[in-house]
Every structure is written in structure tokens, then in C-alpha cells.
Specification:
Largest sheet: none
Helix content: over 70%
Radius of gyration: 11 Å
Structural class: mainly alpha
């Protein structure tokens, strides 16, 4: 994956976390969201994104 794809994935995970915090009945298990977050962050690191870029992308997915 490239940086744009990783950024999009991190934003999606951020929205998933925000949804879970807003409404626990979203149906998506928190362990799935956390695993996706970890996978997305590892992919972003492997693609050369900095921790600040990863954090900014994740935060932009939160409301």
C-alpha cells in the first residue's frame, strides 16, 4: 500500500473507533477495530509514514 491508501485506511479506522465510542451497539467488536488499527499503523510505518503522519491521519478519521 502507498501513503494515500494507508492514510485512507487510518481514517476509516478512526471513524470506526469514533462510531464505537459514540454507539457501542454498532455491531463491530472493539477487538476487530483494534486489530485493524494495528495492521493499518504497521502498514503505514512500512510504507515510510512518520508517527506524526499516522497520528494525523487517524485523528482526521475521528469526528
Amino acid at each position: 500500500m502507498n501513503n494515500a491508501e494507508n492514510t485512507a485506511k487510518l481514517r476509516d479506522v478512526g471513524r470506526d473507533v469514533d462510531d464505537l465510542l459514540s454507539n457501542i451497539s454498532t455491531g463491530k467488536d472493539i477487538s476487530v477495530v483494534l486489530a485493524e488499527s494495528s495492521e493499518a499503523k504497521n502498514a503505514a510505518r512500512a510504507a515510510g509514514m512518520t508517527e506524526d503522519e499516522i497520528s494525523a491521519a487517524f485523528q482526521s478519521g475521528l469526528s
